[in-house]
Amino acid sequence: MVALSEIENLSLEFETKTPQEIIRWAVTEYSPEIAMSSSFQTQSMPLLHMATRIDPNLIVFFLDTGYHFWETLMFREQLAADWNLNVRDLRRDPRWDAFALQNIRTLPIDDPNLCCYLNKVQPMQRALQGMKAWISGIRRDQTSVRAQAKILEMQNGLLKINPLLNWTRADVERYAKEHDLPKHPLYDKGYRSVGCAPCTIAIGADDDERAGRWAGRGKIECGLHTDMFQKKNISEVESSN
Ligand code: SF4
Asked: Which domains does the chain show, CATH number per domain?
């Protein structure tokens, strides 16, 4: 395991490495206390493909928020079987079930920050307890928040590894084409980035890749890759209202 003092230099060194080189380093250093997360959308396919070919037993966390399109659930199921993936579905803490079910239609609209915290951030925090490293597929060209990220980021003892940070949308498309990777069933219907159904709309071919996520609602991130991930409990979450 790498010393804390070396993380920054190593992260800079990785700026010129390929994603595969970074993933190989990560699984060598941290396996079996390492996992990746995937939303099983078209743009997630390259990382999922390369990481699980480097380590076929790598744990893949999927956030089953209860709000997914049926197509996403079917695609996740099919791909897990076809690629023999070690997928673990993550769900919200049952303590919030009564509240969440009572507000199932209104919560994503009225308070998406709280909804994302309950259904994405907190389940991921719990799943990563006991892990030493987390591989994520974020890219700098996706959002203004992600543009500031580093390839290696230490977060309260957990090393976050972002191997695709320097890749562009074109790089993702090129890799997908070269390896003939499957597409999410909604991709060709204009869903370039697919999240939960209440918070995703179809967009035009030339629109920004994430323009269909929380469109017109002043939100660009779910919280997994922002300060929200450091919040310890529900009372610390800033309301969307
Ligand atoms: S993306 Fe929307 S539905 Fe999904 S957890 Fe966040 S607010 Fe809720």
From this structure: 4-230 (3.40.50.620)
